[in-house]
User: What shape does this take?
Amino acid sequence: MKPKPEIEIPLNLKTERFEEIWEEWKQHRKEIHHTLKPTTEKRQLKKLSKVGEEKAICMIENSIEQGYTGLFPPKDKPVNGCLELLVPIREAYQKVYGESAPLPSQWQLRIAALYEAGETERLKALADPSFIRQGRTMASMARCADGIGWVEKAIDDYGAKEMSKSRTWSKEIDAAVAEATRVVKENDRERVELFKKLDRDERVKWMAKAVEKFPKMNEESLLRMAALEWEKSVK
Assistant: This one.
C-alpha cells in the first residue's frame, strides 16, 4: 500500500495559526465522513492561498461551524470585504465568551452591514472586549438574551473613544455595574419571597401573565417577572 503523498502548504499560509486550523479542518472532514482526498486538499489550499491567511482562517472556521464539506465565507459576506474585520472582533468575543465560542451569525451579518455603511469607528469598538462584556452585563440586568444589539448600546451609552482610551475607566464602569447587578438580584429575591406569600390563585394569575408576555423564559425568570409585575400593580 502506497503512503499518502504529503501536500505542501503554500508559503503565504505556512504559519502556526493556519496549520492548526487546517488540521482542525481535516479532522472535521473525517468526523462528517468526508475524508479529505489529496487532490481536493491541494485544490482547497490553492484556493485559500489566493485570499491570504486571515480570510482563509475565517473561511475554514465558518465552514467547520456550519458543518460544510466545502470552504465558504460566512453567508452574505464578500471574501474581499469585511472578513478581515471578523478576526479581531471574533478574538474579542472569545475573550468574553471563551476561546471555543463561535462568532454568532447575527454578529457576522451586522458586521457586514456596518462595513458596507462605512461605520469604521463602530467596527473598531466592536473589537474591544470591554464593550462586549458591558453589553452582556446590560442584557443580564434587563433579563434579556444578550447579543450584538446590547454591545452597540454599550458603545452608544459609554462612548467608543472614551472607553477604548481608558481601561481604568472601563474597569470602574464594570465595577459599578457589578454592584448594581448585586442590588438588583437582592431586590429580586426579596420581591419573590413576598410574591410566594400571596394566595395560590393570585400567584397563578400573575404567572400566566408573565408566560404570555415572556413565552421563552425559564421558570425561575418567569417567577421574577411575575413578582415584578405584581409589585408594580400594588404600588
Notes: Confidence is low (pLDDT under 50) at residues 76-81, 166-170.
